[in-house]
Write a structure and sequence with these properties.
245 residues, five-stranded mixed β-sheet, disordered N terminus
Amino acid sequence: MIKNLLIGLLVAGLLLAGCGGEEYKLSEDSKITEQDVKLLKKSYEDMDSNERARLITMQKDMTDKEREVFKEDFRRLYLEEMEGVYTSTERAKEAFEKSWDYETRKRKGELTEGEQEQEEKMKEKTEQTIATSGIKSSIQSIIDNAEYKNTLVDKIVINENLGTDTQGDYIALIYLVYDIKNTTKTGNEIMRMYSDDLVATMAPKSTTSISEATIFWEDEYNNRTVKYAYEYKDGGFYLTDVMGE
């Protein structure tokens, strides 16, 4: 009985060394942590949003050797995440291997010319998404902090300015609702005042991002839309067009 128990423990130890022992011996200069290692052992369903986000970036912090050590963990987690997405487990495995091979070749600088061009396009798109999200958040914060009375934000749209060749040049389209009983004269005064204040506050942040800003007001009580268009130059926004007053 004792002999059988010892044999069982020995086999278990060998299995641990082959499947999970090596990955815990991280080098001192490793960019991943023991917490990362523990994360890879969890089920995908048990991870929170922050852990899933870390799972996406973790490979970039790994050495080539570490990627290979943890490949089986990444495959398992991918299959768990994609369960029900593919028509079969085999298709999911094929997709994982294709993605893994692409990333391996990318790290080694072995992508084809076409793949490199696609990478550049994806990089530009990602940078643009990050930039536009930051601009939208900044404008929303300005409006929130200003506490414009009887004003609701419908939406904020940030588009690339295709009228210039400047990289990172955007147009801000800000849709607001003036939500109160008013005369057209009073509405015009208030909406113009709020619009001027908004772009004036935006100006210090717009040197390298927003070249044009248009503010649309939905004046529900008077059943009309008012538009104020501004252009950025010489450190400030200047009114260039008004419609609907």
